[in-house]
Each structure stands twice: as C-alpha cells, then as structure tokens.
C-alpha cells in the first residue's frame, strides 16, 4: 500500500448519527472490505495488509487518542489485538479472526463457557494494567476455536462502572446455556435487534446512558 491515509482514510465516508448505534459508511475505495462497524468507528481490511485491519474513526467522533493510550497500556495479550501504527483518525491493528457473539446468536453457533472465561481473564488483566474495561458486550467480543477475544477497547479509560458484561453473563448462564447447550438454533436479526433496543431502553431508564453520554 502506498498510503493508508491517501488510499482509504481520505476517501471513505464515516459518520456517526447516534452515539449508541453503528456508524454510517459510504464511498469505500475499490479493493477495501468493510470488516465491521462500531458506534464511533469502522474497520476495514485489504489483501495487501496480511493479518492487519484498519480502524477509522467517524469524522464527527473523538476518542482515538484514548484508544492509542489503551493499546500501549495493554501491551501484548492473547485476548486483545495489538497496535501496529496509527494516524490522525486511524489505527492499524493486528487482525483477530472469528465471529462476534452477536453473529453466533444469528448463525446458531454455540458459545462455549471457555469463551466467557477467556473474556473474564482479559478483563482482569486490563484492570491489573490500570485500565477500566467498559462497553464489553456481544458485538465487541469474538470467538474462534473456543477462545474469546475483546475487539473494542476504546472506552477502557472511561471512569464509569459499566454493567454490560455482567448483564451478558447473567443472561448467558441463566437463559442461553440451559437452552442452547442442546438446541443450536439461530435467532433472527429482528429478534436480536429488539433485545438490543430493549436493553438500551433499560440503560436509559436506569440512568447509565445519561452518565455514559456525558463522558463521551
């Protein structure tokens, strides 16, 4: 690649309309593939970048400086990506293969307990490195061959206490594991989106969303 900034960052359009919904992406240059979307950024891959992905922040969102700091604090750990290089709005990260837990629900792929255990260990590691793991949920965790990985660390410097992973684990052990251990059925997208929106409503009512938004 001659220049990630010139060939991708300066061309692609990424805009965040709502801080609690995925960004809008358009004008993706030829040869690049949209790998995933978060609430503040999008991730891209290219055949020339073996084992790497490029994460670009939306034009109207901040946070890249914090994320760079987080990756430097994390160093090397098997459950996290690694920072290869960065620019004003983009990060080049080691690619983590697998599917998100959200995708596993959609495809009917069983999520073993080992994935949950790996994420718990990764959270404890981050805490030991002086970080505050937050915003960990089904779209920010991927699994591959029975192992779990955290793919979004952008909020690990935020000071608030985040309940998302605790709530996810409660639902996993209380509802998911007893049913899906035997029945590996897929869940339709409309059903998962209703759960996601319902959970967002719960967070707003509980006051967590307001606290989170004030710190973004």
Description:
The chain is α+β, with helices and mostly antiparallel strands. It folds into 2 domains: 4-94, Phosphorylase Kinase, domain 1; 99-215, Orthogonal Bundle (Transferase(Phosphotransferase), domain 1), CATH 1.10.510. The chain is 38% helix and 19% strand. It contains 7 helices and 10 strands. It has helices spanning 4-9, 64-74, 101-107, 113-128, 164-180, 189-206, 208-215, and strands at 13-15, 24-26, 33-37, 41-45, 52-57, 83-86, 90-94, 99-100, 141-144, 147-150. It has a 5-stranded antiparallel β-sheet. The chain has a 3-stranded antiparallel β-sheet with strand order 8-9-10. Strand 1 and strand 2 (24-26) form a beta hairpin. It is globular, with a radius of gyration of 17 Å. The model has no long low-confidence stretch (mean pLDDT 92).
Class from helix and strand fractions: alpha+beta
Largest sheet: 5 strands, antiparallel
How many strand units? 10
Domains, number? 2
Amino- and carboxy-terminal Cα gap? 33 Å
Strand-residue fraction? 15-25%
- Computed Rg: 17 Å
Helix content: 25-40%
Which CATH C-level class of the largest domain is it?
A: Mainly Alpha
| Low-pLDDT residue intervals, each spanning 5 or more residues | none
* CATH-scheme architecture of the largest domain: Orthogonal Bundle
Mean pLDDT: 92
CATH topology call of the largest domain: Transferase(Phosphotransferase), domain 1
Protein name: Serine/threonine protein kinase
